[in-house]
Amino acid sequence: MNVNNLPYGVLRAFLTPFLMLAFRPKVKGLRNVPASGPVIIASNHLSFSDSIFMPLVVPRKVTFLAKSEYFTSPGPKGLLKKLTFIALGQVPVDRSGGRRSEAALITGLQVLAEGECLGIYPEGTRSPDGRLYKGRSGIARLAIESGAPIIPVAMFNTEKIQPTGKVIPKIMRVKMIFGEPMYFEGDSADLLHLRDVTDQIMKKIQEMSGQEYVDIYASRKKDELKDESEY
After folding, report:
1. Confidence category of residue 208, pLDDT binned at 50, 70, 90
2. Which tens digit of pLDDT belongs to each residue from 6-20?
3. Shortest CA distance to 124 belongs to which of 219, 221, 223?
4. CB under 8 Å to 25, separation ≥6 — which residues?
5. Nearest residue to 158 (alpha-carbon basis) of 185, 184, 176
6. What is the Cα–Cα distance from 71 to 193, expressed in whole angstroms?
7. Are 89 and 64 in contact (CB under 8 A)?
8. Which of 129, 147, 115, 135 minimizes the C-alpha distance to 197?
9. Strands 175-178, 150-156: pairing kind
10. Looking at residues 144-152, what average pLDDT do you find?
11. 3-state SS track over 144-162
12. Which pLDDT tens digit goes with each residue over 93-117?
């Protein structure tokens, strides 16, 4: 067993019974996730707990991307942080050699080339208000260049279970829907095509989740809310 899979397996074995009993996940369409081979799971993002609930119901390991700084902090605290992120199925993205988006793309393609399951939040960050925001086009490049299918996912209630800033979750039922595979081809250097593919993915997630769609990036909305709070 890969040493990086050990803490993931331990956390999964420990949390799954608790998840099933306390949060009674209602899951639809899980059969749409292929049992093997490269696949991209693209989900809306309402809460930190999305990265716990969704992977625990998927029968294969879901790998997410995280900043490499999370894996290199010194001392016992740094080691604990590293093991926690590994246990959550996250791998480091080295941004020292170029732009953050390019580093994430390269790492994501490596994960998919190994036949693994890659988890992505196309919005790039958690929704600040429960609405669905514009997707980042990196997911389109990953899908086109890897040939991997995209499984759109809609999460429900996680923003109520664990609102931003809250550590202890509220006990209530979590729901999620896994959509049918989406396949994309074309020129990954064509920015207009990448935007069209990304918008198709976000439209599908919006149809599944029923969220109101906002045609700006969630990060921009967060900046606007921060500026408003300073006045």
Report:
1. very high
2. 667 777 788 788 888
3. 219
4. 19, 53, 57, 173, 174, 175, 176
5. 176
6. 35
7. yes
8. 135
9. antiparallel
10. 98
11. HHHCCCEEEEEEECHHHHC
12. 765 544 666 878 888 999 999 999 9
Q: Could you give the CA distance from residue 132 to residue 219 in angstroms, rounded to a whole number? A: 12
How many CA atoms lie within 13 Å of 191's alpha carbon, on the beta-carbon side? 0
Contacts of 4 (CB under 8 A, 6+ apart): 86, 91
CA distance 174 to 158: 6
Write the DSSP string, 103-126: HHHHHHHHHHHTT-EEEE-TTSS-
Largest CA distance in the chain: 54
d(CA 42, CA 154): 9
Dihedral of the CA atoms 227, 122, 208, 22 (nearest 10)? Answer: -80
Whether residue 179 is predicted with pLDDT greater than 70 in this model: the reply is yes
Copy the structure tokens of residue 2: 């890969």
- Look up residue 203 and give its two tokens: 């439209």
